[in-house]
Amino acid sequence: MLISGWGRNIWVDASISSPPNSLGPINLEKLSSAIPRGLGRSYGDSSLAQNVICLENNNLLIHFDDETGILECESGVSLFELNNIFISKGWFLPVTPGTQFITVGGAIASDVHGKNHHIDGTFSNFIIEFDLLLGNGEVITVGPSSYPELFKATCGGMGLTGVILKAKIQLIPIQSNFILERKIATTNLSQTMHAFELYANAKYVVAWVDCFAKGSHLGRSILMVGEHSEAGGLDENQFTQYEFPHWAPKGLLNGSVLRAFNSCYYLKQKLSKCEILVPLRKFFYPLDAIKGWNVMYGKEGFLQYQFVLPEEVGMEGLRDILREISESGRGSFLAVLKKFGPKNSNYLSFPLQGYTLALDFKIDPGLYQFLERLDILVGAYGGRVYLTKDSRMSEKMFKDSYPEWPVFQSVREKYHAINKFSSLQSVRLGL
Fold it and tell me: In the chain, count of helices (H) and strands (E)?
């Protein structure tokens, strides 16, 4: 079966096996170099291999304690399914990325972060334990205190330590289906960074950056600050998705169109009401409203380039990188800036204390050379690229920027993962 990541820029003809459920057997004896996969929302090649263990149908809820908010579920349960069930009951995900169409297992394997990393850290902070199928067929229960080295290798480990079968996670109580959102327009990067400092104690903070802006407007942004509202009730409006129009003309996302879009969007947001109640799903997952939006980049696909820079060089590094992007004419309509809190102890988790910027780029003949120039800047400032979004980083850059990779490899070897679990990405990165 021909499959790709969400970016549709790398395809592989894979043999797909779908285990019946977490309580049923997964025969690893016949599999080698296999990779677990959920809904295929990682952008690049991290869920691609010749042998894929597909877990998207392993989506049973096993137990929920409505006193404590502790949920036990199979790893193939999606965040979308959890939101459908638990928002109206007054519970929500403690950490969520920009899409709800990922699985719990994928969230652990990527150790995803959200708009509240500066306050709450990553998804793994709320994992109580998970069951992991090892390369030798043994299933063990892993938590921060039981098998701590395997916990730190699996959370953010891109599925390379084993198959996550089920997990216990802590949900958070909410009183409303709404977020009280405040928008702040900034006119340059200095103002944007100052705004992040000003709202450092807010629960959710994220900025959209006009990456076409130059000169004195370089880094102008719309900062969105959110807090859970106590008003509005828990009754949830039905989530609606719209199909991306497949009749949309080719070349729609050229530089002129994107530049015009960014200017109009910035002006519209700047003039809009600055404080409003926004439904949870609209605040956290704006792109989910367009089903199959990834096809708008055409048959060549796209990639998302997300990097993080240490806080002490954030201003200087972001200025250099944004200048490189704006002068290249390769701006993105999606450019999301967040501030991370302290890093955790997981070996391959992405966040460092500092600033992270994510941008979508359509694949074109010169893109990879351009991104290599950005890699040099990111590396020079002590930053690194997010593995969940990656499809082309060099082995050297990976090993320079993720210095704990030898420890990660030793844990994989100890727990029988070497030569059993791998992906196109892990082979490329020398894991």
Answer: 12, 22
pLDDT along the chain (431 residues), means of 10: 95 88 64 91 96 93 97 97 96 97 98 98 98 94 97 98 97 97 95 96 96 91 96 80 70 68 75 84 93 87 96 96 89 88 98 97 93 97 98 97 98 96 98 97
Bridge partners (DSSP) listed for residue 55: none
Rounded CA-CA distance 77/57 in Å is 8
CA dihedral sign of residues 370, 255, 11, 404? positive
Strand residue runs (E) in 332-420: 335-340, 354-362, 384-385
Kindly list the distances between the CA atom of residue 92 and the CA atoms of 122, 236, 317, in Å, as whole numbers in the listed order. 15, 12, 35
Task: Check: CB of residue 405 under 8 Å from CB of residue 431.
Answer: yes
Place of tokens 């060549």: 300
Q: Name the region of 347 (left: φ>0; alpha: ψ -120 to 50; beta: rest).
A: alpha
Distance of CA 57 to the CA centre of its chain: 21
The whole-angstrom separation of Cα 397 and Cα 384 is 8
pTM summary value: 0.94
- Taking the C-alpha atoms of residue 125 and residue 341, their distance in angstroms, rounded to an integer, is 13
